[in-house]
Design a protein that fits this description.
alpha/beta; 7 helices
């Protein structure tokens, strides 16, 4: 019997949080189980090891970056998130391009770490680079999330599980997407960093949010570590003081704006 439903996620811009908490909240309500959140977006949340048991149900979500899980987070999730025959629902979110091998990758790690997969889903959310394209998840997406939750409840009542080979993306689970520029040429913006303009009030919200702990605690325009282009600092800034000016990054954003036209639907298994 499930005693607690856990919403476990990495979500710098809040998109993954919205999906995971929606599904986990519905499951906990129907199952009459306790509900608890672990948000490991902030750096200090990754100093602990999280272990779950047979009476837990974990809804574990992550955004997809370039078709994979965020690579700098992979050592943490491999070494510090453990199950003891714990039922798992793995979720990934992506910005209407492709979830690549990310859903397969997350489910595989869960299986290796002692979890029992009972379901998996890939849900479209707003692309962090293209908020102007419209807000997702929207009402149609929420209906898909509802349907997925109903599927999970049925599977849980029957003691079913999800086999890893049922998921797409196995052949892509070790391949990163090559970003393209506006005319379709490969571009590299690994060294691109968000800049700060004179609207900055030095409120520190970006520093507190940065999942890599990169921003200087005194002068937020200074950096001391890697940037994963999550856009958390840009989304949270109340004065729109942070922005990218790297030409290769901007060319890629223009390419996405031109090509991500057809609405993709969420998928669940």
């Amino acid at each position: 019997m499930i005693k607690k439903v856990w919403a476990l996620y990495f979500s710098p811009t809040g998109n993954t949080r919205r999906v995971v908490e929606f599904i986990a909240g519905k499951l906990s309500q129907v199952l009459n189980a306790d509900f608890e959140v672990i948000d490991y977006s902030k750096r200090d949340m990754r100093d602990s090891t999280y272990i779950f048991d047979e009476k837990d149900l974990v809804i574990w979500g992550s955004p997809i970056y370039a078709g994979r899980l965020p690579n700098l987070l992979t050592p943490f999730i491999r070494d510090h998130i453990r199950g003891r025959k714990t039922r798992l629902v793995s979720l990934v979110t992506y910005g209407n391009r492709s979830f690549g091998g990310g859903l397969y990758e997350l489910t595989e790690i869960g299986l290796e770490n002692g979890f029992i997969p009972v379901g998996a889903g890939a849900f479209v959310t707003s692309h962090p680079f293209l908020e102007s394209k419209g807000k997702r998840p929207d009402d149609q997406d929420k209906r898909s999330m509802d349907a997925f939750a109903e599927t999970l409840l049925s599977r849980l009542s029957l003691g079913g599980r999800l086999e890893l080979d049922c998921l797409p993306g196995k052949d892509l689970s070790r391949i990163y997407y090559q970003p393209l520029g506006l005319t379709g040429e490969p571009v590299n913006f690994l060294k691109a960093r968000p800049k700060v303009n004179d609207h900055c009030m030095n409120c520190g919200l970006c520093k507190d949010l940065c999942p890599m702990g990169t921003l200087d605690p005194v002068a937020v325009e200074k950096e001391k570590g890697p940037c994963i282009k999550c856009h958390g600092c840009i989304h949270i800034c109340p004065s729109q003081a942070r922005y990218f000016d790297d030409v290769h990054f901007l060319s890629h954003v223009a390419y996405l704006d031109k090509t991500l036209i057809k609405r993709q639907l969420s998928s669940y298994y």
